[in-house]
Design a protein that fits this description.
The protein is built from 10 helices and 6 strands. By secondary structure, the protein is α/β, with parallel strands linked by helices. It has a 6-stranded mixed sheet with strand order 3-2-1-4-5-6, sandwiched between helices. Strand 4, helix 6 and strand 5 form a beta-alpha-beta unit. The N and C termini lie far apart (37 Å).
Length: 226
């Protein structure tokens, strides 16, 4: 695919910002990066998120910078004024500032509860668990494409698309359930435990409208989308 991609303020698709804990997970990251554009969204991240992710990755894992170059991932600018996000934890303030500077509607993170609701609402961003986001926004064709990509590269031992689909359920049970009938195979059971908080914000996950009352949003969906 393309190499480096220049950041531009305009965008034809919804931008989703990946937190460091997502960048560091190859399968989740690839589902979002490769499956994004055909599903109507584009994944991106910042230098701060990339540096943090690199620290937590396995020694032989492909560096995020290489992934970014290979798939033409946008490198978002560094956001300013992170100190204004007083309800958000520590280093996550810079991540939220970067997501805002990127014009993102969603911050994909495993730690949704690290971001303050008022902080998110002030910049029109919702923090979303990756499994919830993928189950709602990744299309069937895009999901199949990513699975085929992994199967082509996984040669030792070889894996069939159905087997890889079943394995997805260990970390992404909602995503597996959304496409459960695709290969006609039961899910693999793993140690995955869904966090207590999987969505926080005022931007509806489906229609992207701002919902005035955040308590009216259930599993990321506003009243008009449920």
């Amino acid at each position: 695919m393309s190499s480096a991609t220049t950041f531009s303020a305009s965008s034809e698709v919804t931008r989703v910002f990946l937190d460091a804990n997502i960048i560091a997970k190859p399968v989740t990251r690839t589902l979002l990066v490769v499956g994004g554009v055909p599903s109507g969204f584009r994944a991106l991240w910042s230098q701060a998120a990339e540096q943090e992710a690199t620290v937590h990755m396995r020694p032989r894992a492909l560096p995020p910078s290489t992934v970014r170059e290979r798939f033409g991932v946008l490198l978002a600018p560094s956001g300013q004024g992170e100190e204004r996000f007083g309800g958000t934890k520590g280093a996550d303030r810079q991540i939220l500032a970067d997501a805002a500077a990127a014009g993102a509607h969603f911050l994909i993170t495993e730690d949704v509860d690290d971001s303050g609701l008022d902080d998110l609402a002030s910049v029109g961003i919702s923090a979303v668990n990756p499994d919830l986001f993928l189950a709602e926004r990744l299309t069937r064709d895009a999901y199949s494409t990513v699975i085929d990509l992994f199967v082509e590269r996984q040669l030792n031992p070889p894996t069939t698309p159905a087997q890889f689909h079943a394995a997805i359920a260990k970390q992404h049970p909602r995503l597996f359930a959304a496409h459960a009938d695709l290969y006609g195979i039961p899910p693999e059971r793993g140690a995955h435990s869904e966090p207590a908080v999987i969505f926080r914000g005022t931007c509806c996950l489906r229609c992207e409208r701002i919902v005035a009352d955040p308590t009216a949003i259930i599993d990321g969906l506003g009243p008009e989308c449920r």
